[in-house]
Amino acid sequence: MDPQPDDNPDRRTARESPPVAAAGLTRRRIEYAAFAVVVVIAVVLGIVLFTGQGEDDATAAGANPASISDEDRASADGGVGPLGDLARRTEGDALAMGAVDAPVVLVEFADYRCPFCAKFSQDIKPELIDRYVDSGQLRIEWRDLPIYGEESARAARAGRAAAAQGRFWEFNSALYAAAPESGHAEMSPERLRGFAVDAGVPDIDRFMAQMNSDDFEALLHVDTMTAQRLGIPATPAFSVNGHPILGAQPIDTFTSMIDRLLAEQ
After folding, report:
1. Are 241 and 82 a contacting pair, CB within 8 Å?
2. Region Disordered: what ranges (predicted)?
3. Residues 185-231 pLDDT 10s
4. CA 212 vs CA 17, 147, 151, 208: distances in Å
5. What per-residue confidence (pLDDT) applies to 164?
């Protein structure tokens, strides 16, 4: 005999609820598992994409990959990490500080409107300079990564204009010293002009003209494309002899890595 239909909706719902709930739970578990897989893939891709910069990029930026001999480069590049050698090591590079043959090179990708980049400039970089750069153990090389719009791009051009007159790091420090504790600083032409004056840029008219020109677009494009190829998601980002450091990190993160690399020389 065929079973009779149950006309009581409460009983039907009660009997049907457990399978429905179980199905919902199963779907959620599948969704969570899929999300976890996506996260893992993203992390792996970020690591894989964060690869080294080739000599073609350095040459396009006006750098000379043969600034030091191949023998000196091989000696200086001991302990290169998974990112490869991102250092340009160009003699006379206005956007670098420290000996061209320093055993450790820290490459910094930064945006002038990034508050965490400012914190690195204010709190971390001075100590690295005192402990390692001044003694010839560390070289710091700057890369522009303007990610916060046209004001960031204008500030990057301003930094290059200051570098053209030999006052890059002075301009860099003056700008970051005035950064707010949070949020993105205003980078109007007038404000950037004030930083140039504070930095001792000698020809302010030339500075303003170059800041508002496309003189440095090719150089900025090289840095930006390099960062994109590496998969850098935000600023600041660092490579220390090819070993990545991402985001705002305490001083010990930098010093422990630099000390280890120096010990491996």
Report:
1. no
2. 1-20, 58-83
3. 999 999 999 999 999 999 999 999 999 999 999 999 999 999 999 99
4. 68, 18, 12, 6
5. 98
- 81, with CB counted inside 10 A (0-12, 13-18, 19+), is middle
Asked if 42 contacts 69 with a C-beta cutoff of 8 angstroms, the reply is no
Domain boundaries, the chain: 1-49, 53-263
| 118-135 pLDDT, tens digit each | 999 999 999 999 999 999
pTM assigned to the model: 0.72
Per-residue model confidence (pLDDT) at position 83: 87
Read off the amino acid at residue 128: L
* CATH top class, domain 53-263: alpha beta
Task: Name 111's Cβ contacts closer than 8 Å, sequence gap at least 6.
Answer: 117, 144, 145, 146, 147, 148, 152, 155, 156, 235
Q: Which helix (H) or strand (E) holds 219?
A: helix 217-230
Residue 138 pairs in a beta bridge with: 104
* CA–CA gap between residue 177 and residue 118 (Å, rounded): 7
